[in-house]
Design brief:
about 170 residues, 3-stranded antiparallel sheet, alpha+beta, 4-stranded antiparallel sheet, 3 domains, Secreted protein, elongated, Immunoglobulin-like
């Protein structure tokens, strides 16, 4: 055999195997990135929490539980997402799909306490701004999204200050 054929015989399988390994590695990293996650968010009703999840197995039941002992089930959608409102939850909220691992969503009360704190701060700033200047509006926050509870508090505080200090 000449040297050229030997090189081709040795290098061709190496090139093909490296391509195959590259796609296997790429597939494995994609699968690892899709682990289930969930979160807890407060609602307008202080007794309720909205639990949202994603990357769960589509069309399968997900059990959502809290430390208070309540368990609710919801079916993940075609994209692996779910959304569920739970009432009177306490402690850590978790989600688990049968055969899967338990995912920690958050802590009940923390989101509600933060919502109240944001509302109070917004109310205080709205009241102070309109008391100082009857034409005051909510300041822009730059690129950061303004918390909805802060916005509601600012509006309510500004409305109260307007009635007390700006009406003739």
């Amino acid at each position: 055999m000449n040297a050229r054929r030997v090189r081709l015989a040795v290098l061709a399988p190496l090139a093909v195997s490296s391509l195959a390994l590259g796609t296997v590695t790429f597939s494995a990293s994609t699968a690892a990135a899709a682990s289930p996650t969930c979160s807890v968010r407060s609602t307008d009703n202080p007794r309720n929490l909205l639990v949202s999840g994603r990357n769960f197995e589509p069309h399968r039941l997900v059990a959502v539980s809290s430390a208070s002992g309540g368990v609710r089930a919801v079916r993940a959608g075609a994209t692996g997402r779910f959304s569920l409102t739970i009432t009177d939850a306490s402690g850590t909220v978790r989600a688990r799909q049968s055969g899967g691992r338990t995912v920690r969503c958050g802590t009940a009360g923390t989101g509600q306490d933060n919502a109240r704190k944001q509302y109070r701060e917004g109310f205080r700033q709205g009241f102070a701004a309109v008391r100082a200047n009857c034409d005051a509006t909510q300041p822009r926050q730059g690129f950061a999204a303004v918390d909805e509870n802060f916005r509601k508090g600012f509006r309510d505080g500004a409305r109260l200050a307007s009635r007390q200090f700006c009406e003739d």
